[in-house]
Amino acid sequence: MKLTLKIWRQKNATTKGELKTYPIDGIEGDMSFLEMLDVLNEGLINKGEEPVVFDHDCREGICGSCSLQINGEPHGPDRLVTTCQLHMRMFNDGDTIVIEPFRAKAFPVIKDLVVDRSAFDRIQQAGGFISVNTSGNTIDANTIPVNKDDADESFNAATCIGCGACVAACKNASAMLFTSAKVSQFALLPQGRIEATERVLNMVAQMDKEGFGNCTNTGACEIECPKGISLENIARMNREYLSASLKG
Amino acid sequence: MAILNSSIARKVAMALSGLFLVFFLAQHFTINITSVIDPDTFNSWSHFMGHNILVQGILQPILILGVVFHFIMGIILEVRNNNARQISYKSFKGNKNSTWASRNMIISGAVILAFLGLHFYDFWFPEIVHKYIESNPLDATRYYPELLHKFESPVRTGLYCLAFVLLALHLWHGFSSSFQSMGWNNKYSKGLRGFTKFYAIFIPLGFIFIALYLHFNQIH
User: Fold this and answer.
1) Which UniProt keywords apply (chain A) (predicted)?
2) Which of A72, A77, A106 sits opposite B89 (nearest CB)?
3) Distances from the Cα of A34 to the Cα of A22, A60, A117, angstroms
């Protein structure tokens, strides 16, 4: 497969970037998108040019590191996959592929295609946890009865890998799907109810502080999310937030 | 008071003001459709709305406040949202994952706002002049002829119809979205969403029908 890649190149956070064109040949349909970029980088290194910098780690759709805007969509044209799980068979010989970093004020570009997503870490740190005494008298979680439907929904919310595709897909660069998944996974469980009020207030406050946009319910985040996190989580977070605000 | 600055509170404020305007639209449509069914009823209801102290003194100011709040908040949200992505994508395929109506509420809203300007110019300002500046005597039969007169012009009728199409798009996303913003999510959500979509088509289509009926009725 012969392709033309238009890739965002940016030296560092303070310089201006631009799209650069790279022709590439010999790409197999069974290659993953990241393997295709590996081939490109090998060629660039052999020519003495600087390779394209991009985030990756597990390469099996779990870590949430790979985060590319491919032809106008986060993680590319396939559904329910991360960039590392995207296969080149999704493209045709002769295609031009535009590759950009996820764009948001809260996700500044570090270099080329790598963005700083530590805003998500700070939202998580603001309340995405439960306080459990682990000093030797920890109660086994299985001794607390949990409704099966709630457990399933909580697990579904917990599958969010924090890749940032929701922010990238949203026309407002809103982080509500991510934050709501993290709020929901605890709000649905008895262990998480104890700190539910301060959790939702603190996490939403941190989300706003980071400079993400407001959700306008376009639903783009749900469609582009590689883990299929549902918009129902946003409704739940809104409910939790309103109820927590009224409690004071 | 941190709630007033939060993104969720802003969403809820938009949703509540929007729902209030949706309710008002149904009331406005109910009165307007009588102009097609029975002009006498239209005259009598219009006269009531124009002279009832509760409607004029309390409901009308609340309505104007609701409209102004909704569009000012809409503009504030749009500015903040644009600010959240300062460098735009070279390639962004929003149509792959969301509807035009959901992505362009500011455009449909701006058209509706411009339409409201025309609508006020056509009906509200002349009514204020008639009642309070010229101090004309009460006449409960003038409303239908005045309405007919306004829809003589094909340009005005066309503009009204265009605005109603944009209103349909605005409602298509906004009405159902308002429940999501308020955290409404239960076994009734699907049915409610269906109702909001029906409403988004039915009410604007009804207004278009009224405008066209009044326009063509006087030609023949």
Assistant:
1) 2Fe-2S, 3Fe-4S, 4Fe-4S, Iron, Iron-sulfur, Metal-binding, Oxidoreductase
2) A72
3) 15, 11, 19
- Assess A211–B contact: CB distance below 8 Å, yes or no: yes
Residues (pLDDT < 70) of chain A are 248
Separation CA A200–CA A159 (nearest Å)? 19
Q: What is the pLDDT of residues B91-144, one digit of tens each?
A: 999 999 999 999 999 999 999 999 999 999 999 999 999 988 998 888 999 999
Asked if the C-beta of A239 comes within 8 angstroms of chain B's C-beta atoms, the answer is: yes
Please report the domains of chain A, with CATH numbers, ordered by start residue: 3-111 (3.10.20.30), 118-247 (1.10.1060.10)
The domain defined by B13-74+101-219 folds into: 3 helical TM bundles of succinate and fumarate reductases (1.20.1300)
Where are the domains positioned within chain B?
13-74+101-219
DSSP A136: S
pLDDT tens string B137-163: 889 999 999 999 999 999 999 999 999
Q: Give the residue from B91, B95, B102 with the most A CB atoms within 10 Å of its CB, the best one to mutate.
A: B91
pTM of the predicted protein model? 0.94
Complex-level ipTM: 0.91
Q: Where are the alpha helices (DSSP H) in B52-142?
A: 53-54, 60-83, 100-103, 105-119, 125-128
Share of chain B above pLDDT 90, in %: 91
- C-alpha Rg value of chain B to the nearest Å: 20
By C-alpha distance, the chain A residue nearest B78 is A172
Residues in chain B closer than 8 A to A171 (CB atoms): 81, 85, 92, 94, 98, 103
> Which among A71, A172, A229 is the top mutation candidate for probing chain B, defined by the most B β-carbons within 10 Å of its own β-carbon?
A172
